[in-house]
Amino acid sequence: MDNQVEEIKNKLDIVNVISQYLTLKKRGRHFLACCPFHGEKTPSFTVSPELQIFKCFGCGKGGDIFTFLQEYEKIDFREALEILAKQAGITLKRSAEFTQSYDQKKKILEINNLLSHFYHFVLTKHDQGKQALNYLNKRQISSKTINTFKIGYSPQNSNSLLNFLSKKGYKPQELIASGTFGQSYNRLYDRFRHRLVFPLINHRDQIVAFSGRILPSSGDQKLAKYINSPETDLYHKGGMFFGLNLARNHIRKKDSVIVVEGEFDMISPFQAGIKNIVALKGTAFTQDQLRLLKRYTENLVLSFDSDFAGTLAARKSIELADSIGFNIKVLDLKNKYKDPDEAVLTDLPFFKKQVKHSLSIWDYLIRSAVSNFGIDTDKGKKQILSFTLPFLAKIDNSVIKSDYLRKLAAELGVDKNAVAQEADKLSKPNANNNSVASISFIHKPSQEILRTEKLEEYLLVLLFSAQNPIELLKEISPETDLDQILSMVKFKTVLNLLSKQKNFIAISFSKKLPPELKDIFASIYISATANQFDQEKILLEINKVIKNIKLVNLKTTLKELSLKIARLENRGPGDELKKTEEEYNLTIGKLSKLQS
Question: What pTM does this model have?
Fold first, then answer.
């Protein structure tokens, strides 16, 4: 397996692989992009063709082509291996465990593709699908749209479907594993029988599951309007959007995505030409869903049902999207229509206008809170403040924050300063808060340690920026014992390995490092090769850095000796005190000499 991983790495260039997902711009010896793993507007995501790695200096993520694909596609190593092997034209040798997992997923995809064709055929070509087709026609869903979304119908009786799949050679256990079939009294049944069926297609164009909508003619009020496939090896609801496979290029082009709640709320606008739209699977966003959208845009337009606006799910969705760095707006239908589907079918110009003039998230929160809680009672006003202030208090720009606090105060009919004071209370950290953040602050490294680490790291950056780091290492003043001067073991280890090399090739050198140092070296080397250092002045700059490291070390030693002397003086005169004072004076002498 390891040999095949290396073979794939040797055949595929990381720049070509990542360029399939991100727009890379060449800068010097590297390629840059905005990081897909965290919110940023200034590119810090760096790809090194020389080391065949990526590194984000914003969030710290880094690795090779396998790491990138796993993080970006939210897949495991085996799936990444499969995809990259295919790109490299390499046939994988599979372990028994891998083969079993791979074969199961492949089987599910095969079954799902057959199911999709079957459902679609029944809807569009068979008498059993006429009722469902008439329902779609009444909802003004065109034949073209039915074909585009591969909409189907599952007949009331599952026998024909089961016979069809049995003839294809699929076993009952495989059908159950697909998620579409359940079992009752040793008999299989289709979960979606007598329902419209929507294939759920992931961003890699694979049918991973289905969603089913009950028909009005079913007559059973106890049945849920919508049901989804249960989670399987392929389908995870928290990582899916309905329609993303069709919308993703339009989202990129528009640099904006409209997120709605139901399949028809996505389909009707898409059919009407508003194609940068997806439907949420689940009641609230998950981090995986938002990370998925962030690949295509940072501009989010939310379309919530009016009864959803004040819910905890809505609040969590907004908080999560905000924390990930989305610019959030809200599509407000002004209570004229219950959902986007109705708005598009009744008044398309109105819907387009509302999309164009979507509200800022802050305006929407104030408006929905006032609508939900009312301003006629003290209780209502308190509820409005409780709902809106946690959001408004987090606004970074003080001018924008002040403006929205003023709007909130005006809605409540209260003094703006009083509202601002309440917001300030939320902005200030709790003095008694025993959170992880406050605990870690107590144990924060001293400034001396932080400065030493930065200086030592900079020393290595300078060293590796040289055309020949090995020769430069030899040129450093012979009396300078870097192993004695440096205090960080990680940097010492890198230098010790460098000193033993006959020639320097970055990627070969990286492979010789212990696993825990590979990422550290990558950061250093990318920083070194990203900057244009004057080759003639590198040695001079290195000597300055070495001097500064020595100064920091001597000052740190003086502090430690001073504290030790104070402790010993409390005990009274003695040999240890005398010896420590002599060491202190000697250190002062070294410091004075170095500073002169």
Answer: 0.65
